[in-house]
Amino acid sequence: MNALEQSINSVRVAATAADGMKAEDVVAYNVGDKLGICDLMMIASASNERQVLAIAEEVEKQLFLKDGGRKPRSREGVEEAQWVLLDYGDFIIHIMHDEARDFYNLERLWRDCEPVDLELEHPESRGIKSSDADTEE
């Protein structure tokens, strides 16, 4: 298994943890060719600060338990709980309050990057409405 596949598997663990905590619009992008600082970025959002923190804690816990004791290199935004960033080196997890996510619109920055299939039970794709998907077929 190469490093990118390992990162994708780790991000899937994080996405499943976030989804289990009712995170909204969980998406990930392969940004390695564009950024160089990491391979993958995952974004998830929640409607209040308490939920942002709960999702971030669950992501950390599940990555530790299911991914060989993995711990983030750094954590930012925990005090404000508007945007929690968990830096794992080869991937970065963003847990954002809905308002912060709408304001910063990170998906716009990575729209040219390949999305990662997170294999979630409850997949949601930010910005794609069912009517849009119907017209693409």
UniProtKB/TrEMBL annotation:
Belongs to the Iojap/RsfS family. Interacts with ribosomal protein uL14 (rplN). It is found in: Cytoplasm. This is Ribosomal silencing factor RsfS. GO terms for biological process: cytosolic ribosome assembly; negative regulation of ribosome biogenesis; negative regulation of translation. Keywords: Cytoplasm, Repressor, Translation regulation. Coiled coil: none annotated. The keyword Iron-sulfur does not apply. GO terms for molecular function: ribosomal large subunit binding. Functions as a ribosomal silencing factor. Interacts with ribosomal protein uL14 (rplN), blocking formation of intersubunit bridge B8. Prevents association of the 30S and 50S ribosomal subunits and the formation of functional ribosomes, thus repressing translation. GO terms for cellular component: cytoplasm. SUPFAM superfamilies: Nucleotidyltransferase. It holds the Pfam family RsfS.
